[in-house]
Amino acid sequence: MTPQEARELAVRSLTKVAPDIDPDVLDDGADLRDDLGLDSLDFLGFVEALSEGSDVRIEEDDYQELATLDGSVDFLVRRT
């Protein structure tokens, strides 16, 4: 998966669980939970959407790498 494909998947996954987030003004380094206000269920939905969209199994130990959009993109590029 290219970085562009990974970012598109991450943005789609994020807007799926938090449709009020505007991807055009999204800070790629913003913390998804603290800065964007995702609660635990939203974050799990985000992780599930990433996993389904990439066919990558994401373990709980990987969650810290998915804390930001940039981290999620890097994770997906490495794992696909």
UniProtKB/TrEMBL annotation:
It comes from the Bacteria. Gene3D superfamilies: ACP-like (1.10.1200.10). Residues 5-80 form the Carrier domain. This is Carrier domain-containing protein. It comes from Actinomadura nitritigenes. The lineage of its organism: Bacteria, Bacillati, Actinomycetota, Actinomycetes, Streptosporangiales.
